[in-house]
Design a protein that fits this description.
single chain; 187 residues; alpha+beta; Aminopeptidase; five-stranded antiparallel sheet; three-stranded antiparallel sheet; 8 strands; binds coenzyme A
Amino acid sequence: MPSPTLVIPMLETPQLLLRPVGLSDVEAIQAKFARWDVVQYLNAAVPWPYPADGALTFVRDVALPAMRKGKTWHWSIRPKVEPDQLIGVISLTDDQDDNRGFWLDPDWRGKGLATEAADAVTNFWFETLERPVLRVSKAVANIPSRRISEKTGMRVIDYHERDYVGGRMPAELWEITRDEWRLRKLR
Ligand SMILES: CC(C)(COP(=O)(O)OP(=O)(O)OC[C@H]1O[C@@H](n2cnc3c(N)ncnc32)[C@H](O)[C@@H]1OP(=O)(O)O)[C@@H](O)C(=O)NCCC(=O)NCCS
C-alpha cells in the first residue's frame, strides 16, 4: 500500500508549508489540540476531555487509513519561518455537507494563516480533486471561522443545529462552487 505522503502532495502558501499528516505528528497534535479554545466549536465526535492517546488513535486509526483510501486529506500547518513546528491541522473530506476543517494553535492566530491554508486546500479540492462544490458547516458562534468563509467567497445556504464539543448550537451551512472559485481567482 502506498504511503499517504506519496499520494498527497505538500502544499505551499506565501507563509506556510502544508505537509501531509503522519505518525511523526502525533506528539505535536496531542500537545496543541487538546485545549478548549481549539475544540469548543468542533464536532461532538471529538472526545472531551481529550484522552492521553487521542492524537495517536485519531492519526493511526482514523486519519491515515482514510487518507490511504483517498477519502480524506489531512495536512499539518507549518510556518515557513519555523518549518519543524506544527501549528495546526487542515483537512478535506468527502463527507456530505462538511468538506473542510481546520484548527490553529492560539499563539499563531490573528495573522491570516488559517485563511492562507484554507485557500490552498480549497484550490486542491477544486483543481486537483476536481470536486464541483465545497460545503462546510460551522457554529454561528464561531466568528473567526465564519469570517474565513466570508473572506474566501463562500455563502450561507442553510441553517440547522449541530452538536459540538461545547454543546448543541445553531449552525450555518456554507458553500462555494468550483465555478465561483475559479471566477474569484480571475479577479
Ligand atoms: C478558526 C481559526 C483557525 C481561525 O484562525 P485565525 O488565525 O484567527 O484565522 P485568520 O487570521 O486567517 O482569519 C480570521 C478572521 O476572523 C477575524 N476575527 C477573529 N476573531 C474575531 C472576532 N472576535 N470578531 C470579529 N472578527 C474576528 C479576524 O480579524 C480575521 O478576519 P480579517 O482577516 O478580515 O481581519 C482559529 O480560530 C481556530 O483554530 N479555532 C478553533 C478551531 C475551529 O473552530 N476551527 C473551525 C471549525 S469550523
